[in-house]
Amino acid sequence: MCGMPSGESTRASVHEPELVEPTREDKVAKAGSELIGGPLGRRALLGTSWWTPVRVIALVAIGMFTLGLVQKAPCYNGAWFFGAGSQYTHACYSDIPHLYQGRGFADGLVPYFDRLPGDMQYLEYPVLTGVFMEVASWLTPGSGSIQDQEQWYWMVNAGMLMVCAAVIAVCVTRTHARRPWDGLLVALAPAFALTATINWDLLAVALTAAAMLMWSRSRPLAFGVLLGLATAAKLYPVLLLGPLLVLCWRAGRWREFGKALGGAVVAWAVVNGPVMFFAFDGWSKFYTFSQERGVDFGSFWLIIAQNSSDPLSTETVNTLATLLMLLCCAGVAALALTAPRRPRFAQLVFLVVAAFILTNKVYSPQYVLWLVPLAALARPKWRDFLIWQACEVAYFLGIWMYLAYTTSGDAHKGLPADGYHWAIALHLLGTLYLCVMIVRDILMPDRDPVRRSGDDDPSGGVLNGAEDAFVFGPAARPARDAVRLDGPQVEWGKADAPGGSL
């Protein structure tokens, strides 16, 4: 086991779980490891040196984040301020410096309470993200030209977001106890580094990753509190409650779900309540803006709109997108309740968040950050992960080249609309591909890389190894010779099946 003598293996298994070696079970990981000297050895795997997986992956994540900052250098040195087109041709655009002045931070306006000049009226971000932006403005020197201040504001935010990136990598590394090296998928994800400082999404992603870590440790209340805070920073984390509800239903774990739901509601209310009460118009701007916003970049709705002589109205798109999302959620719920084996938590979360991204009327390039840690937990397979990342990097370049084309006037420098539509299609197909692979893993558990290594649901917390209490379809009437894949060979549904939480 892991290249150890049998005696060492026996002693190690008593005190700590046997770690899965990706360079031995994954052909792409093995080939890639040749760049740094070949597959990992026993000391690296067991953490007997200072270079434990958590420390290595955190440092790699910081290193990749730094490379992402370097990639933004052309914009930092002038493209944000003196060349609208060059920030697109260099693919280094960021909302952060533009919103320093555009959302009143340069003038000391208080988010949600002070009205902004122009049509926006109030800050269009959730409360906790607004707090993050405001704290960064407090740390930004107020001297020098507005360009100097915007540069400082971006750097301050970049430093704070780097902490979020490290938290994400560490949480993913620690969520699957036997598979810490899967965290390298997050740390080395090229789309993660390229989009990390476009906006403030990493705050919500970090809180969501921490919440999933708490759930994997069977701490539902802490999970709920962190998820509520994440939802106070971005809307998408609330989607995690749907898969959790279905899985807890199937496992009969209603008490734990109640704790998670209660913690999330209270945490969200504590953050939002005061602003909602004292500045309702400013607080509600995020929600009204999301509804009123028209079809925008990155969605298949944009392809339809730009190829139609009579585009759908915003209200119609809102209705259709909502119906599509509900249909996808119903499909995921049906899959969870009828699968031959209860799906893993991370698998269902990825499918639901991906469905939201695929059906939404806008896909900003930084939304890929939502999926990167979920993909590492749901489908830790380097080949599939890199195929998806290649599609996302292509989209990242495509949107900036399209914006360069639209801002270059008669010069037409960049990617025309038809080319941009292909970039959107590539992003959609890449995400769908990963969804298909995850659905296959659910329907054929023996193909799941996590379960093939002997685990049940390491991110499932109280669900890990729990018996089913409610199942539909063939899963409720298994063949008499059906066996569990994660423990002793027993018949499905028997009382003596492995249970309990890890």
From TrEMBL:
Task: Quote the subcellular location field of this record.
Answer: Cell membrane
Its placement in the membrane is given as: Multi-pass membrane protein
Comp. bias (Basic and acidic residues): 13-23
Where mainly located? membrane
Domain of life of the source: Bacteria
The UniProt entry's sequence similarity note says: Belongs to the glycosyltransferase 87 family.
Q: What is this protein called?
A: Glycosyltransferase 87 family protein
Q: Which organism is it from?
A: Streptomyces hirsutus
